[in-house]
Amino acid sequence: MDKIKVSEIFESLQCEGFHMGVPSIFLRTFGCNFTCSGFSMPKGERSTERFLVDPAKYSKYEELPVISSGCDSYPSWDSRFKHLSPLLEIPAIVDRIQELLPNKTFSTDQHLILTGGEPLLGWQRAYPALLDEIYARNLNLTHLTFETNGTQLLSDELISSLMKWNNLKKLHVTFSVSAKLPCSGEPWEKAILPDRIAQYDLTNGACLVYLKFVVTSDEDLQDVHKAVSEYRSAGFNGPVYIMPEGGITTPYNLHMQDVAKLAMKYGYRFSPRLQITLFGNQWGT
User: Fold this and answer.
1) Domains of the chain (ranges plus CATH)?
2) Which of 39, 32, 232 is nearest to 151 (CA)?
3) pLDDT tens, 189-240?
4) What stretches of the chain show up as alpha helix (H) in DSSP?
5) CA–CA separation, 284 vs 210, rounded Å?
């Protein structure tokens, strides 16, 4: 039976990008191909803050501290915390999703979000079974979002499954692509792969693909311009968002107004990160 290593399953609002404000069930998978240790660090430096968190002191994901630099979802990929992410069979995952839904079924205003880590790594082999189980239970799922860094190709099996459920149940699929600029600490040639997201637009108009970039400065915007140009040249025609950097309230609030002004200056969409404003970026939000 198909299984997924799960860091979190929780109900919250979509707090970023195109579907902001939509109540959603989040399934956070374990594992990522990036560390993003450059976030909230001086240029060229890498955060080591996550190494100050002793995994032996914690038995639950939600007990872990939120860090102020580097990747704010570090336990979803750092192997030191893999004991906090159980390997669950598909029926158990859907049981939990159903428990969290207020009416035990999705409405058109409730989405399912697959996030990480990077949800399009090896676990994508289990998503066809996940969708089959959801529809076998008549949970009325109409919107599915993948929150991805945009570096992974989709398997033929996943493409077939998404297209099948689009045809049978009008499933709308969104790829929210948080492409990593050099300020993340990841090298351009590994992070900016336009041919990957060109593959994501696969359901004849029922699939939305958009880009979002974390920025702090006008210098970062020059990287946004360069990246967007490369994505457009590869055929990407979707919306582009810029968001403030910061995994906790203080640095985030310092950057928010400046990034909003940069969005107006350069003609990009602005996205806040409402999970920080509303919840302080705690786990399960």
Assistant:
1) 3-190+201-211 (3.20.20)
2) 32
3) 999 999 999 889 875 666 999 999 999 888 899 999 999 999 999 999 999 9
4) 90-100, 127-136, 156-169, 188-191, 194-198, 218-233, 249-266, 274-279
5) 24
